[in-house]
Every structure is written in structure tokens, then in C-alpha cells.
Amino acid sequence: AQDDYSWARPNRRHLSGDLHMPSLVSDGAGVVAIAIDTSGSVDEAQLRRFLGEVQGVVDQIQPERVLVWTVDTKVRGGTQTFERGDKIDPRIQGGGGTRFEPAFEALADSHEDVACLIYFTDGMARMPETAPTVPVLWAITQAEARHQQMIKTYSFVDAPTFGETIYIEA
Prior knowledge:
single chain, six-stranded mixed β-sheet, two-stranded antiparallel ribbon, 31% strand
């Protein structure tokens, strides 16, 4: 949404009359998709951290709209849509295993022009084989000792094969 004026780019409609007027610009992003891992391996503290980070991201980049999916082995509760200025307070559902693919399927099925997908997860699942057409940011919690033991024992986690990765403290 264009919600501010800028003198850096003059309004071209007024230039022919030799008037230099400001043009309307937008500082916010378009539509941002957010997937939140709500599997059984994500504890309450991690989930609170995810939600805090989600609100921080939204407050900072001010997207036009936010699509939120809570995901374990499938998308739980459908697509939750929040408009600019809304408090992001998704219904948290899940508790099962972990699969990343359902969020990417929901992204492909959405009829929105999504700018990017941010996936909040503990990373305890196999990576999808194919990347989506939008940029992906993996926000992965730093593994706790019990997860480290699971990784060593069962080799659950693959490193992200596409997108960018950041690590957040749980």
C-alpha cells in the first residue's frame, strides 16, 4: 500500500507543468507467507519464541498481508490471513510428526502473489526435494541436547538444500 510521500521520486504527472511534487511510495512488503512448525518436537518455549519472532518480522517489514500456516504432518486449521497492522495471533494446532511439504503445497495452492516464505522450525524433518518459486528463509531453533542426541542416533535432520538459513535461540 502506498502510504507515504517521497521527494526522491517526483510525481511524474506534475513534471509537465514544471511542478515538482512528491510521489506516493510504500515502505512495506507485499504478501508474506509464514509456516510455523507445530510438531511434537517443538516445545512450548520454542513455540512462544516462534510467535514472538513472527510478530517482530511483521512489525519490521510491514507486509500488506500475512498468510500463516501451522504445520506438523499437514497444515492444521487452513490458511490464517492477517492484514497490515493486525496482531499475528494464529490458532496453534498440531503435535504430530513433522513434514515440510504441506506448507509448500499450501503455498502453491494459494492464489496470492507471495513475496517470500519464512519457515519457523526446529528442523527435525527431511528437506523437500524441490524448491518453491519464491524465496525461502528457514528460521531454525538451535537444537537442544535431546535433539542433538536424536540427530546422532537417527539422522533425522538434513541441512536446508534451498533458501537461506538463520538460527534462533530457543
